[in-house]
Amino acid sequence: MSETEFPPFLKWGSYPSKDKENPDILVVEVLETETFETEFSTNIRANVDGIEMNIPLHNFESKNNQLLKKFLEAKKKGKIQVGKEFKIKTWKEQHPKKMTFEIRRYELVF
């Protein structure tokens, strides 16, 4: 399958910020409001900073499903629509219970 038929997946590891006050910011334009599942994750198709990508909202190997919850809540409220832009702010911080782990946090801005 060529890249034009199936867009690449966004790699959250490319966003290294560890500062809530200075997060990485992605400008997202939703291309489809319906999520889809792969073997590994629940995703959405969107333009990220002008590039068509599949955004993993929840990786099945992770308990961190906050991005999926925030996305579905915003969609239910009508804030997420095809062609409408919003921003995802993301950063990593110390896990509150497991001191050797970091957890990725997200904030949706409309």
Overview of the molecule:
This protein is mostly beta strands. The chain has one domain. Helix content is 10%, strand content 40%. A hairpin with a 2-residue loop joins β3 and β4. It is globular and about 40 Å long. The relative contact order is 0.22.
Task: Record the SSE blueprint.
Layout lengths: L23 E7 L5 E2 L3 E8 L2 E9 L6 H11 L8 E10 L7 E8 L1
What is the strand tally? 6
Mean pLDDT: 94
Overall number of structural domains: 1
Q: Tell me the overall shape.
A: globular
Uncertain stretches: none
Radius of gyration: 14 Å
- Write down the secondary-structure element order: EEEEHEE
Major sheet size, sense and barrel closure: 6 strands, antiparallel
- What is the distance, rounded to the nearest whole angstrom, between the alpha carbons of the first and last residues? 34 Å
Q: Into which percentage range does the β-strand content fall?
A: 35-45%
Helix segment count? 1
What helical percentage do the residues reach? 10-25%
Structural class: mainly beta
In short:
With 110 residues, the chain is mainly beta.
Could you name the key traits of this structure?
single chain, 110 residues, mainly beta, six-stranded antiparallel sheet, 1 helix, 6 strands, 10% helix
